[in-house]
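General statements about sequence and structure are easier to judge against a single worked case. No coordinates are needed to read the tokens, only the vocabulary itself. The sequence in question and its structure tokens are set out directly beneath this paragraph.
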Amino acid sequence: MSEKIYCGNGKEKVFDNGGSIVKVCLDLDLLHRMFDQYGFTTNGGKKMIKVDVCKGREIDKYDNTHYVTVDTFTPNSGGQQNSPKPASNQNSGSMDNPTYGKAARGSSFDDGDPNSDIPF
């Protein structure tokens, strides 16, 4: 397992109704430096980098409840246990050819199943 690259932290706010939100601060200078190794560019030209937002074991002295690390998983690293398996659906997108929004699901909201309750 590789060394974690910490790039931010965050605080969780829990609301009276049971909901919650985690607000995070990211080190953009570090993410920019990590882009060449772990980032990717979409077909639309957007530069992206995947990060993991993780709940910490303890609250730190600044009341941060979460930390953020750069997702360093690369499919070619080989020998990793419990590595994610590639999706068999070719329309699901990938790190090389990500697809988001309408392009991922077609231009119509009809998924072909009349019993489906999914709105997209």
